[in-house]
Design brief:
- By secondary structure, this protein is mainly α.
- The protein has helices at 3-36, 42-78, 93-98, 106-115.
- The protein is built from four helices and no strands.
- It starts with a helix and ends with a helix.
- The mean pLDDT is 82.
- Bound molecules: zinc ion.
Length: 117
């Protein structure tokens, strides 16, 4: 992977990171306003708490996304971006394209999922 490619991926990652943050702030704001709404009857109350749960789960996913991206940016700084953290082989370009914050090559990913890190 050359400098130009890396710079492009970095810009893309920063953009995704930013989008996730904006999204999760919006979800947080939405969950706050749900909680403050008056709850006229039980039926509404259960759908209300269901929504809150969905929003909270969503933001947990988003938080882990941001962590993944931060870790990818850190690996870029260290010059190990695109290398498998387990076998240290280069991860296929196609895989990095689909998941730019991949930490493992496909083989290791399968192993890690089966046997743990
Ligand atoms: Zn590997």
């Amino acid at each position: 992977m050359d400098e130009k490619e890396l710079a492009e991926i970095r810009a893309h990652l920063l953009q995704v990171r930013n989008e996730v943050l904006v999204e999760s702030e919006r979800a947080y704001a939405a969950s706050q306003s749900l909680g403050k709404d008056g709850v006229p009857d039980i039926g509404d109350m259960s759908s209300n708490s269901y929504n809150q749960e969905v929003l909270m789960n969503l933001s947990e996913t988003q938080r882990s996304r941001v962590r993944d991206i931060d870790a990818a940016l850190e690996r870029m700084d260290k010059g190990v971006y695109g290398l498998c953290m387990r076998c240290e082989e280069e991860i296929s370009a196609r895989r990095m394209e689909v998941r730019p914050f991949s930490r493992y090559c496909i083989d290791c990913k399968t192993e890690v999922e089966k046997f743990g890190e």
